[in-house]
Design a protein that fits this description.
By secondary structure, the protein is an alpha/beta fold. The chain has eleven helices and eight strands. The chain has an eight-stranded mixed sheet, sandwiched between helices. A hairpin with a 5-residue loop joins β3 and β4. α1 crosses α11. It is globular.
């Protein structure tokens, strides 16, 4: 099972949009996909709530009553699989603490799920903050994908994410693999080019070539309870996420699942 955490410290950078549409691009290549909504605001869950999700089967039950992740998976009409979230996830820190046992719990749950669902790629839509919820996804991940919208404040947020990931590495005893993807890009705006230049100066080849541009289809599809390929598979937004899928295939081939820290 490949596990990808989509995470940024800053909200409104397109994390949920990227989680859903990248997963959909994955599925279009005949891959099995599992979505984990790890945001107490449950934006990903809200996209599909109208189709009759069982809201008693949500991720917090995995922590609260040790319900296996496999029992929380719900199939969506488009073939994706979802473990929903609800606001109780906000209480994870206060109820279970911030120690290693809590941070590692999701990783252990996914390892158990891997025994029966090894063919899945798991996409974890993280809470926009550096806390137990998001860091547990980082602990469990093979790759952290950081969406960065093309504005100057997002650069500062990306630096905070980088520091947080670096701080975790001594605990994990491995390099946290990460890639940055520029979102909400507008090639007509000078700021887009300036943000990309600064991101590449700071993070080098960890900034992906693919950019996700602002497109009407991406704004509309979520409102319609669809991913972009359902809404308009020929749209520029769909092409962007398909390009992101193919670029990540090369990244995944080149990166070991666990890179030890240098001595």
């Amino acid at each position: 099972m490949l596990k990808i955490a989509i995470f940024n410290h800053k909200a409104d950078v397109g994390s949920t949009t990227t989680t859903l549409n990248l997963a959909a691009a994955w599925q279009r290549q005949r891959r099995q996909v599992l979505l984990l909504d790890m945001d107490p605001q449950a934006r990903l869950t809200e996209t599909y709530k109208h189709i009759g999700l069982d809201m008693q089967k949500h991720l917090f039950r995995f922590y609260q009553s040790a319900t296996p992740l496999a029992d929380l998976i719900q199939p969506l009409r488009n073939g994706l699989q979802l473990i929903p979230a609800n606001k109780e996830l906000m209480n994870l820190d206060s109820q279970f603490g911030r120690g290693p046992a809590t941070l590692k719990r999701l990783s252990e749950g996914l390892a158990q799920l891997n025994k029966t669902h090894a063919e899945y790629t798991a996409f974890m839509d993280c809470f926009s903050g550096i806390g137990v919820i998001s860091l547990s996804a980082v602990f469990a991940s093979d790759l952290v994908l950081v969406p960065v919208s093309t504005d100057y404040l997002s650069i500062h947020s990306a630096v905070k994410v980088e520091k947080a990931l670096n701080a975790l590495e001594p605990v994990l005893k491995r390099r946290v693999q990460r890639r940055y993807v520029l979102t909400r890009a507008d090639k007509r705006k000078e700021m887009t080019a300036e943000v990309e230049q600064e991101m590449r100066r700071l993070f080098g080849q960890e900034v992906l070539v693919t950019r996700i541009s602002e497109h009407a289809a991406l704004a509309e599809c979520g409102r319609m309870g669809q991913h972009v390929f359902e809404y308009d598979a020929n749209s520029p937004g769909a092409r962007d996420y398909l390009a992101l899928y193919f670029e990540l295939q090369d990244v995944i081939k080149q990166l070991p699942r666990a890179t030890p820290l240098a001595a």
